[in-house]
Amino acid sequence: MRVGLGYDSHRFAEGRRLVLGGVEIAHDRGLVGHSDADAVAHAVTDALLGAAGLGDIGRHFPPTDEAWRDADSIELLRRAGQLAAEQNYQVVNVDVTVVCEAPRISTHADAMSARIADALVIAPSHVSVKGKTNEGMGWIGAGEGVAAMAVVLVDRVEG
Length: 159
Fold this sequence. Notes:
Layout: E1 2-13, E2 18-20, E3 23-25, E4 30-31, H1 39-51, H2 57-60, H3 73-86, E5 89-99, H4 109-120, E6 127-132, H5 138-141, E7 145-156
Parallel strand pairs: 5-6
Antiparallel strand pairs: 1-4, 1-7, 2-3, 5-7
Helix pairs in contact: 1-3, 3-4
C-alpha cells in the first residue's frame, strides 16, 4: 500500500464558474486557472499520482499545453486513475478537506464524493469530502480563494 498527499489552491475571480470536486456550485465568483480550476479534483489527482509514483498533475497535464485549457478536471482525474491502474495500483480510499469561507462545502460534499468516486471507479463511501473555514485568517479567510488537501491510499494489485 502507498499513500499520496495532494494540495491545490486557486483565487476567485468574476466571470468564472465555480467547480469543486466535479460539481458546479452557484457562487458569485469562480476560480482562476488554465483548466476549470477545480482545486478539489487537482488535489486528488496530485495525491493519486504521488501515491502511484507518477509525479504530479503538471507533469501529465501541463498548464502550458493548450490541450488542457478549460479542461474538465474530473476527466483529468479519470486519466490519472487510468495511469495508476496501468501501474497495477487500485485506489482504496480518498480523503479531501476543502478550505474556504464560502460557499459552504457540506451541502455539496456528497455530490463531490460521487463524482470523484465515479472517476476513480470506486464506491462513493470510499471518498470523504469535508469543508473547513480558515477562521477569517489569511487570503482564504479574506475570501480571496479556495484551497484543497487530499490524501489517497492505493494498493498494488497483481497484474
